[in-house]
Amino acid sequence: MRLVGMLGGMSWESSAEYYRLANELVRERVGGLASARLLLHSVDFAEVERLQAEGRWDEAGELLATAAAGLEAGGAELLLICTNTMHKVADAVERAVSIPLLHIGDVTAAAVRTEGLSRVGLLATAYTMEQPFLRERLAGHGLTVLVPQADDRALVHRVIYEELCLGIVSEESRQAYRQVIGKLVAAGAEGIILGCTEIELLVDQSDSAVPVFPTTRLHVEAAVSAALAAD
Length: 231
Fold this sequence. Notes:
By secondary structure, the protein is α/β, with parallel strands linked by helices. It contains ten helices and seven strands. Strands 5-4-6-7 form a four-stranded parallel beta sheet, with helices on both faces. Strands 2-1-3 form a three-stranded parallel beta sheet, with helices on both faces. Strand 1 (4-8), helix 1 and strand 2 (38-42) form a beta-alpha-beta unit. This is Aspartate/glutamate racemase family protein. Pfam families: Asp_Glu_race. Belongs to the aspartate/glutamate racemases family.
């Protein structure tokens, strides 16, 4: 089993899901007492969030690149950035290592295409919904990406940073997300990408009339498959 390096802590709430899912999937696929071989570098999210808010993405990229190099030095053979938003600096991370980076956008797009869909709604942080780094990655796989209107984007972003990243899961916010999903479906979305790792703590397939694509689970499933694959 390959050693998977995880760049986590953004937030640790979602990184805990990465850890849990990876170990559950390995146990399911291998059996017995098998668990995932993981190396986690968990950053201080307060520092990362500050760099995000101030638009200091180059510095954020340097921070994650240094962490990624440390994971490779520690023996990691495959790398995951355990957050959608910080894939904005994926190029900087890739330049810092020689091991493969499994991009969350590629994994998600493959799942959408497997279902025969091409027009999807995206729920994520404002950075991910409004900046092109993930939308263009998805578009490169032939997908048309819809995002919520401005006030709904603000709501989705606020719930992520003020609630989900702090471990707060409320029914009121779940209902609000359901309404945003409904608007995207009404606008023609054939599926909904849960494009922030914390969103899976709040909503799932039962909250949508169209297929939901949970990026955390999809990312971990792909990583476990790669880790277990024969050379």
